[in-house]
Amino acid sequence: MATIETPTSGARSDTSILRDKDEEHIYTASQWQLMWWQFRKHKAAMIAIVVLGVMYFLALFAEPFAVYGPTERFPRFENVQPTRIRFIDEEGQFRGPFMYELTRTVDPATVRVVFVEDTSEMYPLRFFTPGTPYKILGIFPASLRLVGSGTDGPPIFLFGSDHLGRDLYSRTLYGSRISLFIGFGGVFLTFFFGITLGGISGYLGGTTDEVIMRIIDFMVSIPQIPLWMGLAAAVPRDWPVIRTYFAITLILSIVGWGGLARAVRGKLLSLREEDYVMAARVYGAKPRRLIFKYLLPNFMSYLLVSVTISIPFMILGETALSFLGLGIQPPAVSWGTLLRDAQRLTVVAQRPWQMIPGAFVVAAVLMFNFIGDGLRDAADPYARL
């Protein structure tokens, strides 16, 4: 009679062995590896990284992707609605992407200038077509544009045109440079002030803590919008764009560092009496080394989340100042200056396409908030792995 061999009690299945290896892999990983593994599970955050990557790529290389230059004007094409890209002509035949020529006329009912399509004139949409010469990153000369109507075609306005006949799509791409990158400069200064002063206050305590905290209380008690307006109004209007950019960055940083300094102080007050800190102090570690080597890394995940929340705050701050006419000044372009041109009631009622830059502001802020949510969930990876 044949016998059936059964596994001995000491034998283990392949599944349990793999499970033990996975657990060992988790508990031997570094904090950064655990955070990255947990962060990848947050679908919205991963999508936000891709979207922001595309937005920053287009901001850096706006010239080849824009149809025209940021200040290029087309007389008699003011306040044109977005160009309709068609694939089927009036006879129902499929063609490549094309557009009809626009004819300027006056609506007899409203007595307003409108633009209607002339179906007798059809122009194909061309890709990688020559356009206005430019320099990529201000260094490499080029003239090819991703899309256009060619030298013999009418102007194409993917997002419509503004009151001076400038292409809103191109100006939105160029404006993203200031609006997106101003956040990084502002956050750097905010974190420098917040971490330095908050760390000194929380570690030293005593009179130093009292002085720094009273300064923070004074800064927090001032209404932010009037403070923004007062500081921005002090910026001379004849300053060049780069100098104005750094002035606005400094203004936003001065307003925003108080909250971070308070948080850093509270964390250091709770950590400075820990055993490993006392041991490092006994061995002669300097206060600067204790703060930046032993204390700050213990709540680095909180600081990362704070970064992602501060960047959209800076973007909204620049947009608000430029919208009020106190920030970036023409001919420089930012999302705030574009929205300032669309603040009239007639724009909302008759030319809503001129508010499209506001959608880019909302999208950028949402993407940074999604990344902040993902980092917040990944800050305690052991609780979820």
The largest β sheet comes out as: 3 strands, antiparallel
Numbering strands along the chain, what is their spatial order in the largest sheet? 1-2-3
What percentage of the residues does DSSP assign to strands (E)?
Answer: 5-15%
Kindly state the mean pLDDT as a whole number?
80
Order of helices and strands: HHHHEEEEEHHHHHHHHHH
N-to-C span: 49 Å
Helix coverage percent: 55-70%
What does it look like?
This protein has helices at 14-27, 31-40, 43-60, 62-65, 168-204, 206-221, 224-233, 241-271, 275-282, 287-295, 300-323, 335-340, 345-350, 356-378, and strands at residues 86-88, 94-107, 112-124, 126-136, 140-148. Strands 1-2-3 form a 3-stranded antiparallel beta sheet, with no helix packed on it. Strands 4-5 form a two-stranded antiparallel ribbon. The protein has 2 domains: 84-156, no CATH class; 170-383, MetI-like fold, CATH 1.10.3720.10. 56% of the residues lie in helices and 13% in strands. A hairpin with a 4-residue loop joins strand 2 and strand 3 (112-124).
